């Protein structure tokens, strides 16, 4: 291989490597502090009481503190799931019985973010 071809090949290779690294560095990090939607499991777990009750349901996080008293069961049913992933409970308010579409529609107003690891 002559010198010109070799130099051109090395130059080409280094531009490809530069592009690959730029792409890797600029990939969005789901837990990045500049992502206001991202809520870690650790943060979720800190809101495990009647004073502040967050629940994750199918990847979204909801602050349902203000709804505990209005939920049509004793508060204990809701409180048992504060600070946790409540997807299974949500899908089985009674075994095999999911919440209604009315309840589903209600969730949006409590949404505060997205669960990340
Ligand atoms: C997190 C937010 C929640 C909301 C907004 C919510 C909303 C509702 C609503 C509107 C109902 C009336 C029935 C219906 O529309 O399906 C209901 C009933 C009920 N929910 Fe929830 N719920 C939540 C979480 C939970 C959790 C974590 C449990 C735990 C198992 C639970 C258990 C029940 C039960 C046992 C009933 C009454 C039984 C029934 O209607 O058959 N809910 N909920």
From TrEMBL:
One of its GO terms (molecular function) is metal ion binding. Residues 1-26 form the signal peptide. Coiled coil: none annotated. It comes from the Bacteria. GO terms for cellular component: membrane. Keywords: Heme, Iron, Metal-binding, Signal. The keyword Metal-binding applies. InterPro entries: Cyt_B5-like_heme/steroid-bd (IPR001199), Cyt_B5-like_heme/steroid_sf (IPR036400), Cytochrome_b5 (IPR050668). Residues 36-116 form the Cytochrome b5 heme-binding domain. PANTHER family: CYTOCHROME B5 (PTHR19359). Belongs to the cytochrome b5 family. This is Cytochrome b involved in lipid metabolism. It comes from Halomonas fontilapidosi.
